[in-house]
Amino acid sequence: MKNRVLLILFSTSLLMWGCGPHPHHPPDFDISGYAGCRHIGNCGPENLDFLLICCDFLEQGNLTEVVARLDAGELFTPACPAIVLLAAECYLAQDRMEDALDVLNSQISQPFNPDEAMDLDRLSSELESALREQIARLRNSNDNIRFLGSLNLYNTRFDFREAIFTEEMNVLMEQEMYDLVIRRINPLSGDYKSEELMLLLARAFRETGDNNEALAVLEEALQKGGGEPVIREYQALKSIMLLREYPENLKDIENIPWVSRSDFAAYVAWRFDISPFLTRVPIIVDISGIHDSEAIESVVSAGIISLDRNRRFKPDKPIRKMDLAVYLSRIAELFSIKPIFRNVTLPGDISDAHIAAGAILYCLELNIIDVESDGLFHGSRTVTGKEVTEAVDRVKVP
Asked: Does domain 2-131 have CATH number 1.10.20?
């Protein structure tokens, strides 16, 4: 029996001369830091050759070659626990966390023994920590694609973490991926829907034009004891919906916390005579049956507010400060209003390449809109009804 075992080991050594460095190590040798190599003695014969070669490369410091062989799919499937540990550690060493997690979830040929299970738990903790560090590094970067990918990877591979998930949803909202926010938050059970997540869900519904769903979410949040932010959002949405239901309340627009595109269109059509500037009425696919449809058609026809590429007006979408600047600058151009101030410069948070830079500069020259107390413009901030009425009052039509 002893001679037979020696023959097998000798044959294995001969075979490996042609496919990598000679595995001169016995099956129990240790390479610090690689659990897969420590557990080589537990590896099945179908994986032993591959594992010996990889450990030999690692001892030489050649991690790249090992990863190349892993990428090439050389390991036997199902793999033994030692191979799984080795592959996960190598991918982690190259900051390829998704591949490391895939390996840890791969099919194995035998259960992890207690020592291997301890290394598996340790490696899972290291992966979680590494992913959290990557999220922290990317949080303030401009690489939103990788940042979102890291957040999503964390939420799908580890136990649900509300803070990480909420951060991912906030980034998706910033990217205006409202439908995705709805698909991600809506299926969560009530226990996982925090007040902040329900506010994000309501805002996502509002941004997609579904005020009724947004109201239902806020009512649910109130039933769960929602705090002041939920109450404010609920009251604001009810005011918007009341304004839409009873257009004669348009004079009260200054009392609402934010102004939708539809509200602004109605207010502009009420405050200005834009009939001389109307051209052919365009096809608008999402305003059928709403009270402000004629006003919307007027401001679109006059070129004050544009449709998206799918001919949608998005009547319920709140307008931001940069949107207000664009719309008011177009009104000023229609009426040929001349600037009041000269030598005005853009605020520090608006670059020359900003999509609304020209409109913002024109509004500052006209003294229609002001920078804020910190000297910045804050163009992404939603504007209130009072801000809209004050800005419109400053548009001095000849």
From this structure: no
